[in-house]
Every structure is written in structure tokens, then in C-alpha cells.
């Protein structure tokens, strides 16, 4: 008894007529009658009352009809779900905060795609907080963010602590200072922070580093994203604190200076669903460490 026999039988039972059922199934009537007869022979029972017109189900036929319709629905669901799982596993959805694109993320994914060419990568720009929700709903499979947010359903791996630096207008008097700056040098300026929305964000991380040193910037300007922050710096509207991987952006009108404060760092955190056994996530992590090793970047394998 296979699914095709069951589908033929169900259609005949519903149409109560072999000719109409054959038309509906797009087959000729003789093979349809033959298949239903074979099913009766295999089961050793009559499924239709002999000689009844329109066709009428026997007790055994009524029983089989009730179960066959359920089996056909189930089989269709299984087919749909199998296809979906196949698609999901053929795609890696990556959530990232924009600044990681200036770090090693592009190189890591470029290398990863060579190792797993069968996977297609889909990128989703989103904040660290949004990544947690997106992991839980299955929208993304891995997230790269900068905030240490605890969530029992999420496994977080601290990849490295990236140094922060000051971004200053080229004509700012502090650009003449020899050596490194400290956050204290910047408190009297307007501090430009980003992103303004999707809080807590990198903006709060920067403000809390100032607070850790007992400092409060005299004036804070919040802007939507890092390109705008650098544009405002270039326009002489204030100074900003950015990850060192941004070094060189707008190099004509923005001057970058190192910070001496040891706490002026921002973590890069990889987040995945707890207990997600996916081989591709293991493979990405391996590529991250390969890239770090190739550049002698110091990193941690700390699970947060
Ligand atoms: C990095 O710059 O270290 C980095 C950024 C995103 C993903 C992994 C690493």
C-alpha cells in the first residue's frame, strides 16, 4: 500500500465515480480501476460495495478513507517541512553591527564561503540587542555584536577586545599633542555618539567608559550611525570615540589618535543559539581564529 494507491482510492471515494476521479487525477479510467482493485486484493477486503452506483464505501472502506486522508495530509506536511529544513540548512543568516564590517568580518566570511561554497550567506544589519531576538526566532544563525547582554538561550563567545581611539577634526588643537590622548582630554568637547536608536548600543558603551573613569562629557550629540558621526567630526561639530578598525576613514578631514585609557576597548562578541550543533558555526569560529592567527591579533576563546 503506497501513497499513490491511497491518493487514488481517496479521490474515487470522494467523487463516488471512477470516470470523474480519473479526470481529476489526469489518468485514464482503466488504470485507475486496476489500481483500486489491486489495493482491495492486497488488503483482502472490498473497499466499495459491489455493484452500488454511485459508488458507496464499505465499512472497511470508510475506515481506510478516514485514515488515508490523514496520512496524505501528514505526508504533504512532511514533504513541505523537509524542503524547508533543506533550504534553511543551505543558508547561513548572519546578524552584524555595522562597525564589524570595518573589522575582520568581510575577510572571515570571504574565507568561510570558500570552505563552504554550498552555503549561501544572507546578511542582516542589526544591533546587538536585536541579534538576540533574531537568534531566538531563527531569523539569524549567528550574530556579531559589541554588547555583553546575558540571555539563557544564547551562547556568547568573546572573540577579542578591540581598542578604541579618538576621532578629531583635523584642525582640533589636541591633534598637536604628542603621544596618546586620554578621555579626560576630551570631556570639555562635544562628544558625538552613535547609534542613536536601538539602545542600549555602542553609544551607551562609550558613555559608560567615560563614567567608569568618573567623567561626564560636557555635551553629547547623538547621531544615527557611524558615517554621520565621522561626518560631524569632519565638520568640526565635536569629537567621537570609535573602534580602531575604522582607522583611515575620511582620512583627509578626520584625525585619529590613540587613547591611553586601558578601559577604552569594545568587545567583539559572537552569539549563537545555545545547544546549536551546526557544523557551519564551528567552521566560522575556526575561520575567525585562523584570520586572527594570520595577523597575530591577540584574542580570547572565552565563553561569556
Ligand atoms: C573582528 O574584527 O575581530 C571581527 C568582526 C566580526 C566578526 C568576527 C571578528
Description of the molecule:
This protein has 304 residues and is of the alpha/beta class. The chain is 42% helix and 20% strand. It has helices at 3-15, 18-25, 29-43, 59-89, 105-115, 128-137, 183-186, 202-212, 226-234, 279-294, and strands spanning 91-96, 120-125, 142-145, 154-169, 190-193, 219-222, 239-243, 254-258, 265-273, 302-303. Strands 1, 2, 3, 4, 5, 6, 7, 8, 9 and 10 form a ten-stranded mixed sheet that branches. Helix 1 crosses helix 2 (18-25) and helix 1 (3-15) crosses helix 4. It is rod-shaped and about 105 Å long. The chain starts with a helix and ends with a strand. The mean pLDDT is 93. The structure holds benzoic acid. The site of benzoic acid (BEZ) has 11 residues, from helix 5 and strand 4.
- Counting DSSP H or I runs of 4 or more residues, the number of helices is 10
Mean pLDDT: 93
The helix-and-strand class reads: alpha/beta
SSE run: HHHHEHEHEEHEHEHEEEHE
Output the radius of gyration.
Answer: 32 Å
Query: Stretches where pLDDT falls below 50 for ≥5 residues?
Result: none
Specify the biggest β-sheet: 10 strands, mixed
Oligomeric form of this entry?
single chain
N- and C-termini, Cα separation: 54 Å
Helix amount: 40-55%
Ligands and ions found: benzoic acid
Could you say which overall geometry the principal axes of the C-alpha atoms support? rod-shaped
Number of strands: 10
The amount of beta strand, in percent, is 15-25%
Amino acid at each position: 500500500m503506497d501513497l499513490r494507491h491511497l491518493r487514488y482510492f481517496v479521490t474515487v471515494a470522494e467523487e463516488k465515480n471512477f470516470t470523474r476521479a480519473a479526470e481529476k487525477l489526469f489518468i485514464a479510467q482503466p488504470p485507475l480501476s486496476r489500481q483500486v482493485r489491486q489495493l482491495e486484493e492486497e488488503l483482502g477486503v472490498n473497499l466499495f460495495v459491489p455493484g452500488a452506483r454511485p459508488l458507496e464505501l464499505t465499512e472497511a472502506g470508510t475506515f481506510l478513507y478516514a485514515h488515508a486522508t490523514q496520512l496524505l495530509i501528514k505526508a504533504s506536511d512532511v514533504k513541505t517541512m523537509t524542503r524547508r529544513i533543506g533550504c534553511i540548512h543551505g543558508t547561513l543568516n548572519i546578524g552584524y553591527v555595522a562597525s564589524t564590517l570595518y573589522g575582520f568580518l568581510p575577510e572571515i566570511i570571504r574565507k568561510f564561503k570558500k570552505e563552504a561554497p554550498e552555503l549561501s550567506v544572507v546578511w542582516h544589519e542589526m544591533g546587538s540587542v536585536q541579534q538576540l531576538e533574531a537568534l531566538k526566532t531563527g531569523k539569524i544563525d549567528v550574530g556579531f555584536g559589541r554588547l555583553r547582554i546575558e540571555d539563557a538561550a544564547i551562547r556568547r563567545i568573546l572573540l577579542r577586545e578591540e581598542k578604541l581611539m579618538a576621532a578629531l577634526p583635523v584642525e582640533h588643537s589636541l591633534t598637536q599633542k604628542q603621544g596618546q590622548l586620554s578621555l579626560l582630554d576630551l570631556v570639555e568637547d562635544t562628544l558625538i555618539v552613535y547609534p542613536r536608536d536601538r539602545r542600549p548600543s555602542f553609544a551607551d558603551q562609550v558613555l559608560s567608559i567615560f563614567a567608569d573613569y568618573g567623567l561626564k562629557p560636557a555635551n553629547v550629540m547623538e547621531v544615527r550611525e557611524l558615517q554621520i558621526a565621522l561626518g560631524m567630526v569632519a565638520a568640526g561639530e565635536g569629537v567621537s570615540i570609535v573602534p580602531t578598525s575604522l582607522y583611515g576613514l575620511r582620512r583627509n578631514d578626520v584625525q585619529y589618535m590613540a587613547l591611553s585609557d586601558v578601559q577604552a576597548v569594545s568587545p567583539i562578541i559572537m552569539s549563537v543559539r545555545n545547544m546549536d550543533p551546526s557544523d557551519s558555526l564551528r567552521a566560522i569560529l575556526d575561520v575567525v581564529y585562523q584570520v586572527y592567527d594570520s595577523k597575530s591579533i591577540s584574542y580570547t576563546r572565552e565563553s561569556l
